[in-house]
Amino acid sequence: RTIVLATRNAKKVPEMRAILAEAGLDVEVVGLDRYPDAPEVPETEPTFSGNALLKARAIARHTGLPAVADDSGLQVDELNGMPGVLSARWSGSFGDRSGDRDAANLRLVLDQLADTPAERRGARFVSAAAIVLPSGEERAVEGTVAGHVITAPRGGNGFGYDPIFVPDGETRTIAELTAEEKNAISHRGVAFRRLARVLRELL
Ligand code: ITT
């Protein structure tokens, strides 16, 4: 069977692919590059799972195939859980998926925490993973990874807020981990391993 990954974030695609492949699912995973006319979906829901379902529904409808989507972000304790579902557009750059967007977003979080001491810099990454079947059947699951925000970016791997986030039990930022190390502990790793179990039942 074929499933479509409903994301336009080129950095998420290999993560989602690798985690699903490792889960040993017998499926062919295709990206949205096969569907240049796929609709752009505004993320209007207040929750990660709500937005992941919006993206997966639109792509399942467009392609007639089972669609899998991720909605994710960083929740910072000191910012009352923000940027949260607003993580992709925290510095105001709508629709922009470049490294410039990521750099501006993480810079803003660092500036907002400039006066926050180490013991109050707790945060977590959250990923909601959704599957929508052409029949209309749908499920969403979540994964999180807890850690803290450091004061200056480190590392060149990964994407987004990875250079400023150190997971609990680590001294390195996620951007200093290999792709395999990241997938083993990340919010998306946890969520997509859960989703793989659901997919095994549904498909
Ligand atoms: P799609 O909606 O097309 O999947 P997107 O990049 O806009 O792509 P989201 O709306 O889910 O995805 O926004 C996720 C935001 O959270 C974005 O700012 C990411 O940089 C950040 N983020 C998500 N996962 C991350 C990770 O593993 N490491 C660092 N930052 C992450």
Automatic annotation (TrEMBL):
**Record carries keyword Nucleotide-binding:** yes
Subunit architecture: Homodimer.
Question: Do the record's keywords include Transmembrane helix?
Answer: no
Catalysed reaction(s) here are:
dITP + H2O = dIMP + diphosphate + H(+); XTP + H2O = XMP + diphosphate + H(+); ITP + H2O = IMP + diphosphate + H(+)
Q: Which cofactor does it need?
A: Mg(2+)
Residues that coordinate or bind substrate: T7, R8, N9, A10, K11, K12, S72, F159, G160, Y161, D162, K182, H187, R188
The UniProt keywords, alphabetically, are: Hydrolase, Magnesium, Metal-binding, Nucleotide metabolism, Nucleotide-binding
Q: What does this protein do?
A: Pyrophosphatase that catalyzes the hydrolysis of nucleoside triphosphates to their monophosphate derivatives, with a high preference for the non-canonical purine nucleotides XTP (xanthosine triphosphate), dITP (deoxyinosine triphosphate) and ITP. Seems to function as a house-cleaning enzyme that removes non-canonical purine nucleotides from the nucleotide pool, thus preventing their incorporation into DNA/RNA and avoiding chromosomal lesions.
According to UniProt, the name of this protein is dITP/XTP pyrophosphatase
Which residues of the sequence carry a binding annotation for Mg(2+)?
Answer: D71
Superkingdom: Bacteria
- Please name the catalytic residues of this protein: D71 (proton acceptor)
What's the source species' lineage?
A: Bacteria, Bacillati, Actinomycetota, Actinomycetes, Streptosporangiales
Q: How is the cofactor bound?
A: Binds 1 Mg(2+) ion per subunit.
- Cite the EC number: 3.6.1.66
Molecular function GO labels: ITP diphosphatase activity
Q: What family does this belong to? A: Belongs to the HAM1 NTPase family.
